[in-house]
Fold:
Amino acid sequence: MTKQREAVLRVVRSEKCHYTAEEIFERAKEILPEISRATVYNNLHALERDKLIRRITGEDASDRYDSAFIPHGHLYCTECHSISDFNVPDFALTLSGIIGGEIDSYELKVRYICPACSESRATEKRA
Amino acid sequence: MTKQREAVLRVVRSEKCHYTAEEIFERAKEILPEISRATVYNNLHALERDKLIRRITGEDASDRYDSAFIPHGHLYCTECHSISDFNVPDFALTLSGIIGGEIDSYELKVRYICPACSESRATEKRA
DNA sequence: ACAGGATTTAGAATCATTCTAAATTTATTA
DNA sequence: TAATAAATTTAGAATGATTCTAAATCCTGT
Structure:
């Protein structure tokens, strides 16, 4: 665990982080101004391999990361593109039951319209 | 629905397709030799928007696609990188229950070791 | 201190995807 | 059917996230 890896981990673990590699790079530079982009990528991969962080794929051009404390799903709003977390109780267990074997990890993403956007849509209609 | 869009859809709907855009392009050229890569991308986006096909993200550098008949999850083997489908009964319903609102779509990916690889590992250990 | 192995760095290279602008096709309206 | 508008297609250039490279640096164990 080098100081670079520690810095990357600290950034990803910061509050409500769903950052891209680039954003993590920017923030890691505030801790270690000399850190390079390649190192950030290297460490994101290493930390993901060791299950200290989790990669979130798909909704943008670039991957995002979050801390892996509790397995959870992600909600994407198709209007404002915000990301939030949600939990499916005992889902890992449910999955291994269906699959009939051990699971390494899972990724669950739901696209929907978030309450805020849903509300502002309704307001518009009324107007 | 142009003949190009039809060709792309036909390729994605071919048996057990989990192709990348590039693979779809190669196969679409067998139907329409003049088709261009940009058209394949355009139509993949259009077909996804219209929910005629589904995009699968993440496990490779490039996205993959499959036909969207029945909502289902994907199993990735971490050893041989094969992809297969599986079904979580009534999952869309479960999700909208948890989220408390309507869902646009969901993507569920599970990483595990497939039965074939699991077996060959066991065989190795025995040897 | 020293050897060996892993990590870091800057920048170049790669490669999937998107963009562009012109040409063509399809749909609409007269 | 002719005329016009709107959407789609095309080839190739551009973009941009990520990976690669090769040299420098940092640990670790002796």
